[in-house]
Design brief:
By secondary structure, the chain is mainly alpha-helical. It is about 50% helix and about 5% strand. Bound molecules: acetyl coenzyme *A. The site of acetyl coenzyme *A (ACO) has 18 residues, from loops.
Length: about 425
């Protein structure tokens, strides 16, 4: 953090005093006013529910310019990473700050590949769930449950322990997600295979069975790998902030990541891709493209409670750059699988076309987000809707663990403890029960 020459000055009505606060500059993007001493100096807190104007930490991992529609991982534009790197290279970059050379990449790939197996006891744990349990319920449990298996690496102050936990989490997530899927089908779990890529291995664990192996389709493998890359990190979103807050108490990484998984499940965050596909399917069943106009009227009517899922973003007030890449991938996959005339894709394109011209969306700067097309891609690949958020969690694990690691390495690190504006009753006396 660089101290700026600027200062922020606060004056409070009724007082002649003014208070100065230091301002810090980021490498790109907005400066921040350091208000850490505000309470000590004024006996006041700041009020910012939803963190609309609050930077909760300094971070060197991901940068978003929401007005420009720009996303950088460690300084590299997402468009360049998506075209030039695979997911594990992206993980290396997010974790270590630099892209790997060929030797570093081979070593990292090997480390991850050799940690994909999960303890057999995990199978027993998973079998305790109902077959119809939501995969995110299972995943929250399994990831938290990993804390019970790795007592050798839960010293959060030891960088080597943090590294091995990161490798374990990234490596085992695909195995756990595929296990949750196989369990819902009543099929046996498929063990990972080390001769496949990270994403190819995941596809095989999902779709092979003991009677029939699964041949990985290269276009599908690349598309899913791209979905992983696009979801790998997104600075201080709700689930990442949850991981940081949870981890700030000193809890172990598996518990902190389980908290992130739980947060991601919500429909305003990771659950949006599932909700978006359900919306498209419902609209298709109720008249499809012909009913788009009517549906949009409902979306614009605040009393209807209907939102256009996959549209809008807290930070992007321009086209989400990930949505553009996802739209491209969507076209490629549908073509490779002979689904060019997929009605949901046509419906999505029509909704997007109308929304981008409609003053309601234009004035509010509502554009498609990454979830708008990712559901169509995943459905075409054969991934059930209920698993979409779990796939998102798989991909985001690297971002969560890198942010957790960064927090613990930060000399300014403190337990997270927000304050509040209390609006409850003033102090009062408890009456005896007979007098109440
Ligand atoms: N459909 C219709 N109207 C919308 C939508 C939408 N998808 N999103 C926002 N609006 C409207 C709001 O009603 C509000 O209108 P108003 O100013 O007249 O009251 C205005 O746009 C601003 O919306 P907020 O909800 O205040 O914006 P916020 O930044 O809090 O919300 C959010 C962002 C939660 C993502 C929202 O746009 C939304 O619910 N989108 C649909 C869900 C979704 O796709 N989530 C995925 C996010 S990306 C991710 O997690 C990977």
């Amino acid at each position: 953090m660089n101290l700026s020459d600027k200062k922020a000055t606060l004056s409070i009505s009724g007082s002649n005093e003014t208070i100065e606060f230091p301002v810090y500059e980021g490498s790109v993007g907005p400066d921040v006013i350091d208000i850490r001493k505000l309470y000590a100096q004024t006996d006041m807190f700041t009020y910012d529910p939803g963190f609309l104007s609050t930077a909760s930490c300094a971070s060197g991992i991901t940068y978003i310019d929401g007005d420009k529609g720009e996303l950088l991982y460690r300084g590299y534009p997402i468009e360049q990473i998506a075209v030039n790197c695979d997911f594990l290279e992206t993980c290396y970059l997010i974790l270590n700050g630099e892209l790997p050379n060929a030797e570093q990449k081979a070593d990292f790939d090997n480390q991850v590949t050799r940690h994909t197996l999960v303890n057999e006891q995990m199978h027993t744990f998973l079998r305790g769930f109902r077959r119809d349990a939501h995969p995110m319920a299972i995943l929250t449990g399994l990831v938290g449950g990993m804390s019970a298996f790795y007592h050798d690496s839960t010293d959060i102050n030891n960088p080597e322990h943090r590294h091995i936990s990161a490798i374990r989490l990234i490596a085992k997530m695909p195995t756990l997600v595929a296990m949750a899927y196989k369990y819902s089908l009543g099929q046996p779990f498929i063990y990972p295979r080390n001769d496949l890529s990270y994403t190819g291995n995941f596809l095989r664990m999902m779709f092979a069975n003991p009677c029939e192996d699964f041949e990985v389709n290269e276009v599908v493998e690349r598309a899913l790998d791209r979905i992983f890359i696009l979801h790998a990190d997104h600075e201080q979103n709700a689930s990442t902030s949850t991981v940081r807050l949870c981890g700030s108490s000193g809890t172990n990484p598996f518990a902190a990541i389980a908290a992130g998984v739980a947060c991601l499940w919500g429909p305003a965050h990771g659950g949006a891709n599932e909700a978006c596909l359900q919306m498209l399917e419902e609209l298709q069943a109720n008249g499809g493209v012909a009913k788009v106009g009517e549906f949009m009227e409902k979306v614009k009517d605040k009393n209807s409670g209907v939102r256009l899922m996959g549209f809008g973003h807290r930070v992007y007030k321009n086209y989400d750059p990930r949505a553009k890449l996802m739209q491209e991938t969507c076209k490629e996959v549908l073509q490779a699988l002979g689904l060019e005339n997929d009605p949901l894709f046509k419906l999505a394109m029509e909704l997007e076309r109308i929304a981008l011209e409609d003053p309601y969306f234009v004035e509010r700067k509502l554009y498609p987000n990454v979830d708008f097309y990712s559901g169509i891609v995943q459905r075409a690949i054969g991934i059930p809707t209920s698993l979409f958020t779990a796939i998102f969690a798989l991909a985001r694990t690297v971002g969560w663990i890198a942010q957790w690691n960064e927090m613990l390495s930060d000399p300014e690190f403190k337990i997270g403890r927000p304050r509040q504006l209390y609006t409850g009753p003033a102090p009062r006396k408890v009456k005896k029960i007979a007098d109440r």
